[in-house]
Amino acid sequence: MTGADEPATGVTVDATTPAVPWDAARAWLAQDPDPETRDELTAVIAAAESGDAAAAADLVDRFGTRLAFGTAGLRGRLGAGSNRMNRVLVTQAAAGLAAYLLEKAGPDAPPVVVIGYDGRRGSARFARDSAEIFAGAGLRAILLPRLLPTPVLAFAVRHLGADAGVMVTASHNPPDDNGYKVYLGGADDGSQIVPPADGEIAAHIQRVADAGDISALPRSEQYETADDAVVEAYVAATATVAPAPAGANGMRWVYTAMHGVGTETMLRILDAAGYPHPVPVAEQAEPDGRFPTVAFPNPEEPGAMDLALETARANDAEFILANDPDADRLAVAIPDAATEGGWLRLTGNQIGLLLGWRAARRAAEGGVADGASLACSLVSSPALQVVAERYGLDFHATLTGFKWISRAPGLVFGFEEALGYLVNPETVKDKDGISAAIAILGLAAEAREQGRTLGDLLADFDAEFGSFASGQVSVRVDDLAVIGRITTALRSAPPTRIGDAAVVSFEDLAAPVSGPPLGDILRLWLEGDARILVRPSGTEPKLKLYLDVRGDSADDAASRLAALETGVRDLLAAID
């Protein structure tokens, strides 16, 4: 047998070539319970042994590192290996999480964990593996009754009084990805994990992996399958977000689940809240983990909403609502004669500001302004702070992600620009694209009663708070080292001008002048009340640059944003 550090026959290596991890690959193959990934890995090993350099490099990629468990849990490409999402890795993760929960548990009762899953490839099997491992470890494991949106799992953690929850999903990632998202109950109140819990869970997972063969782990099929009552409770709670006013009668709108799991739950809530059913994008209405009509199942991506736009034009719709595949995000599009194609896709900031304004009004009208707050991530529009101050609410700018937004003190509403909104924190402590859709329907119906539209509400916001505009420049890479080279260049030689605007301040939030590190984020303030934030994506191979400007009018803000984007692209080109 070839040693761990020895090349296979015929594979040429030099001093810079990573050693092919033969022992790791064969040990993984021996314990893999999945015939599909066993066959996949067997073929790669055989090719590498025969001298195929590409296959040898593939083994290094699969086993040279381990898919990291962090504050987003696990997320990665499906396939065999420690650097892929598969049944071995998921089993190790479940066993590690079980050990963590048992370590933290009191003596009175076993920890309770609830498991949900979406329609992606492998999700149902990963969920059942997790339930069997949790039950085998002595936990009370509750599997949701069928594939469901991520917000239903987040709701179920609190509703069932669980100690933890697991959602098997990769949200809006490419079709070949899957993931493992962890929530904690108790003092965490159903929010996603944050440090130090993520590190402690990761350490337990590593101990399981180091112990060897997963077949030695105890399993049990004595887990529970929840009945539909938990879904009915979510439906009832979400319907109260915005019961339909009279203006909803006859409302024509289009909805797409983007081949995800949103349709069934959305329709049930519409019935409970009294809204008319939408015209569906039929090709995308049912769950399909292949995502056959979109190259990238994220409503932010170019082309992802093309079928929804076609459907809206054919049916003279008043607006479009789109969920991503696990229904925790919401996109909105409205008719706009000035936009090519006649439809405008609203940015996450525009949607978030409308919903934030709605929440602020309701808080003030309900007499709960004292101690109540609005929150958004650092990279989201600074206009939310203006709204909060106008209504006497507190405001919190948090690190990126709802694991942080959901923990803001006194929260009544939170959002992030990546189409994520938390409109009912008393029910779900995470972003929820379905409850956000109900809130938008309420706004649209109320405006409709007055002969107005969502577009008119955006104009009202500008008139009330000023004209803010936001944009984003994304650099998608094949090699993550490219991202590091760009951020290192910016840190070592901060720009003094971007386009025609002078940079008035440059902050490295990974090493701030005062206070604790806030993350791998660079923040630049430019003359003329403009801002740029630079950060690597936490879930995709991207560097994201977030642009925000404030203008004297909507046209002025749009012009300033366009000039800033040009300046940013020129800056990136110069670095490259």
TrEMBL record:
InterPro entries: A-D-PHexomutase_a/b/a-I, A-D-PHexomutase_a/b/a-I/II/III, A-D-PHexomutase_a/b/a-II, A-D-PHexomutase_a/b/a-III, A-D-PHexomutase_C, A-D-PHexomutase_C_sf, A-D-PHexomutase_CS. Pfam families: PGM_PMM_I, PGM_PMM_II, PGM_PMM_III, PGM_PMM_IV. Its EC number is 5.4.2.8. CDD domains: PGM2. Residues 67-208, 233-333, 348-460 form the Alpha-D-phosphohexomutase alpha/beta/alpha domain. Keywords: Isomerase, Magnesium, Metal-binding, Phosphoprotein. The keyword Mitochondrion does not apply. Its cofactor is Mg(2+). Residues 526-554 form the Alpha-D-phosphohexomutase C-terminal domain. GO terms for molecular function: phosphomannomutase activity. Belongs to the phosphohexose mutase family. This is Phosphomannomutase. The lineage of its organism: Bacteria, Bacillati, Actinomycetota, Actinomycetes, Micrococcales.
